[in-house]
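(Fold this chain)
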Amino acid sequence: MREILITVAVMVVCIVVIAVSQFLGQADTATEISATSAEAAVVAEASTDGTEDSAAEAGTEAGTEVREREAIADTESAEAGITETTETAMAENTEEVITTESGLQYVDLVEGTGATPVTGNTVQVHYTGTLENGAVFDSSRDRDRPFSFRIGVGQVIKGWDEGVGTMKVGGRRKLIIPSELGYGARGAGGVIPPNATLTFDVELLRIQ
C-alpha cells in the first residue's frame, strides 16, 4: 500500500510539472524534473525495502539468540539435576555399615559425645522398629515416651544389648538385627513374624 501511494504521488507531481512546463514552454526542463522525481521514488522504495529486510533479518537473529539461550539453560538444568542425583547416591553409599562377630549390623547416624554405658547401667532410649518390608511395628517416639532398660542383663533382645551397649549418649544408630539376635523362629506377639530381620532406629538419650 505504501509503494502504491508513493507511485501515485510521483505521477501527480510529474503531471503537474509537465503541465506547468508546457504552459511556460519548458518541456525539456519538465522531463528532467520528472525523471529526477522518478529516480527519487525508486530510491525511496528501495530504501523502504532495505529497511524492511533489515528489520526482518534482525528479528530472525533475535529469535535464534533466544532459542540458543533457552537450549543452554535447559542443558545446564539437566546437568545440575544429574550432579545432584549423583551426589545423593554417593552420600548414601558412604554410609559405613559395621558388622560384628555376632552378625549384628549397625550404622551410626549421629555420633554421640557422651558416656558409653556398661553392663548393669539403666539407659533411656527412643526407638522405632521396622520389619523388612518397611512397616513400623513399634515406636516409643509415636507414644512420646522413652523406653528404659538395663544393659547386658537380658531385659531386651541380644541385638539391643550389644548394639546399644556400645553407643554414646546423644548418639543415634540404625541397628540391623538378624533373627538369631532378635525373636528367632518364634516371632513375637503376632506382630513380628518368625525368623524376621529387624531394623531399629535407636537414640541413646541418657544413662540413669
